[in-house]
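Continuing the series of single-chain predictions for the mutant panel. This is the parent chain; the variants come on the following pages.
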Amino acid sequence: MIPLYYHEDYRKYSFGTLHPFDPVRFPRFVDLLRGREDLKGLFDIKEAFDASDEDLSLVHTKNYIKKVLELEKVGGRLSGDTPVKKGAPAAARRIVGGTIQAVIDASEGESAVNLGGLHHAGKDYGEGFCIFNDVAIGGQYMAEKGKKICIFDTDAHQGNGTMDIFYEDPRVLFISLHQDPYTLYPGRGYVHEIGKGAGRGYTVNIPLPRDANTADYAYSVEELVEPIVGEFKPDIIIRNGGSDPHYSDTLTNLGLDMTGLEFLGKVTKNMAVENRSGHVELMLSGYGPRVVEGWLAILKGAFSLDTELPPDKVLASSNDPPGKKVSETVAELKDILGSYWQL
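Parent structure:
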């Protein structure tokens, strides 16, 4: 069985009724896994533990943690889109705990899943619906144990918090496939952002144009992601990102269909097998009507599930040629990163 971490407190990760992040996604997805006959017995749904201040301090400053707790008491915001509501910091701790448990499983040779992915929070800031960065905490937890970590972020929004945390750290390879930052929050993740100091070359940003489809993703993965990951040889691959690259998403403008989301899970699992790496799937994002369906599509690819995906129009195949803009971006990145990787 595949460990999947969850806690009822996840549904308290809320920013208010009018906010686009709807926490009902968490119980809906768990109920889906428990209720469908073709999925029964495949996932071992385990209770995520409550992460401590010591866990949070792996990447966040003590002053930031204190600030979050104070804002919860008096009311306030970490950013314009991220108010600190009662119960949300405790729910975020549970999400962090689930990711820590998932990376521990991965270090022991298992694949694991957590409904996490709060990748916009930095060392001393929170934004983009993210209070504590479970992705970075999970990576740092294992890096401090001597493990080489690859964080493969396929969220439509670039993971600026995770990038900032590891920007000078060669133990963690951060690769992000995301919508062009000229057209989408957080306005980070340009091709020239490749790390600093000892970490130079260990940050790889692959911005994609609006409506980028499965062919564009597949070309980027084949030409850049797979060669770099293969050369880095990580002990653990953490793929982060939910359903928001899907064409129906209400906050983004990418063009993946359900088979495209399945591709993201499949290619990550293939890289893990090829490199004999542990494998973690983190899924939290997605906005609009097909979030939970998209999560299932990712897990179908990641774990070769024998399950039917919901009907969806097919926009492109991984065997189709990429668009001109994507080809140009890949060529530019090969030129930029050629001093660091064999591309």
